[in-house]
Design brief:
The chain is of the alpha+beta class. It folds into two domains: 4-46 and 116-161 and 220-287, Alpha-Beta Plaits (2-Layer Sandwich), CATH 3.30.70; 49-113, no CATH class. The chain has helices spanning 4-17, 52-62, 73-86, 96-105, 126-132, 166-197, 203-214, 232-242, 249-265, and strands at 36-37, 41-47, 116-125, 139-143, 156-157, 223-231, 273-277, 283-287. The chain is elongated and about 75 Å long.
Length: 292
């Protein structure tokens, strides 16, 4: 019998090779005949920019001198926000890392709300986003609409547990295949019914009516795409809670991917959050400065 760690190693290896852990078949580019997804993707689409001319104007107006050793706009803005509270420009801690570490250790979390990133997340299930959108403070969401988008060729996210067992994966896939066919047939029949009942209705509205009714049979495993904007404090909170070993496995893996992305973006704001392999064979995050 394979251990959880060995099972997860197989998943990671196959994911890098573009294949399913359970079947070995390619899942890198899902299609109508192979619409199964095994891992989330995080695209960093937006980051802040520092308006250096306005910063210089402020410093000149106030007779202040300020310099920093980072070129990451989010880190500069957080340092400026914190120093504004005490008008400590040019005083005390010299490096940005040193300054932000003090902010984190003293849990002056409101300062972190001034750093913002925009990410587009794909390869996640509706089940995951039901949990994701519970994170309200400091977040904004725009999600794929099942009322407007035809889900006949939708992709489906394979739960990590079923990626470890070929028999369970086969049974899960059989269930999903039947649901996919049922949705397609139901959507088509519903569209015909709506057209017969409301011939005067614009075609776009008829399609929306049909899809909003047919989507009721779609499972939580249905893949979705969601655009998320969040500030550093909120992202830290999300990563800490959902990257925990106690979190749902799928969202835990997403939190790990978000953590990797943001640590590359801002080493100084996320320096105390680490990704560590756990006894269950999957990665999780550990946080030095908790609940900032």
């Amino acid at each position: 019998m394979m251990t959880a760690r060995s099972c997860w190693s197989i998943f990671e290896r196959n994911a890098r090779n573009g294949s399913s852990p359970a079947t070995g078949k390619s899942l890198t580019t899902p299609s109508a005949s192979n619409p199964y997804v095994t891992q989330p993707k995080v695209y960093l689409l937006g980051r802040q920019a520092l308006v250096e001319g306005e910063l210089a104007r402020f410093l000149n107006d106030e007779g202040l001198i300020f310099s920093t050793d980072t070129r990451v706009a989010a880190e500069v803005l957080n340092e400026i926000a914190g120093r504004t509270c005490y008008m400590s420009f040019g005083k005390g801690r010299k490096s940005n890392r040193e300054y932000l570490e003090n902010i984190l250790s003293s849990k002056h979390g409101s300062v972190l709300e001034h750093a913002v990133w925009n990410v587009l997340i794909t390869g996640v299930s509706r089940s995951l986003t039901h949990e994701l959108v519970r994170h309200r403070a400091g977040f904004g969401y725009s999600q794929l609409s099942q009322r407007y988008v035809d889900e006949s060729d939708a992709r489906y996210v394979v739960p990590p547990l079923y990626q470890q067992n070929e028999a369970l994966y086969a049974k899960w896939k059989q269930t999903i295949d039947s649901v996919r066919q049922a949705y397609a047939e139901l959507a088509e029949s519903t569209a015909q019914f709506v057209q017969e009942q409301h011939p005067e209705m614009p075609a776009r509205d008829r399609r929306k009516w049909a899809r909003q009714a047919a989507r009721s049979v779609l499972p939580n495993a249905c893949e979705t795409k969601i655009f998320v904007t969040g500030n550093a404090r909120s992202w830290r909170h999300f990563v800490e809670l959902r990257g925990s070993v106690h979190a749902d496995t799928e969202i835990r893996l997403l939190a790990v991917e978000v953590c990797r992305t943001l640590k590359k973006e801002s080493a100084n704001l996320f320096f105390d959050i680490e990704i560590v392999d756990q006894a269950d064979g999957m990665p999780a995050v550990t946080v030095l400065h908790s609940k900032v």
